[in-house]
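Hi V.,

You were right to ask for the full record rather than a summary. Here it is.
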Amino acid sequence: MCVDCCKEPLLSRYTACHESGIYALNWAGCGKCGRRDLPVPVNLSKDTDGVEDEEETISFVHKCSFCEHIVSEHYYRYYISDGQHEYIMECVLCGKGTDSRCVGVFGDVNDTKVIHPSVEMEISDLFNGLASRIQTIVGTDDEDGEEWE
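Predicted structure:
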């Protein structure tokens, strides 16, 4: 891996985890020949665990498109662990990043099940729409003759 080809080797990309491509903003040019042509991906390796969408590891090499100097090896991994989608990327050129996302509607917070915020909002909207429709159909509360709140 060549740190001379990068403006900042292994920079933190926080939650950015890419299985392909290049982080061109970090490309300084080939450390061997000096050309600024973007490197090309070669030697793509894709490994899965055999179970669909459970685990995937991808690696390839960024190579200078002119002199074939090896810039860096790009590593990406995706897997599911404890109900979370886990993503990892590490590459001298593209940086390093990790991300974790809830698999389903529910997520664990302190060992208690909670509804994901986007689903909670959707349920709230459905409930409010249903309550409004019922109020329109019924009009008043039959027991005391008052309008619905």
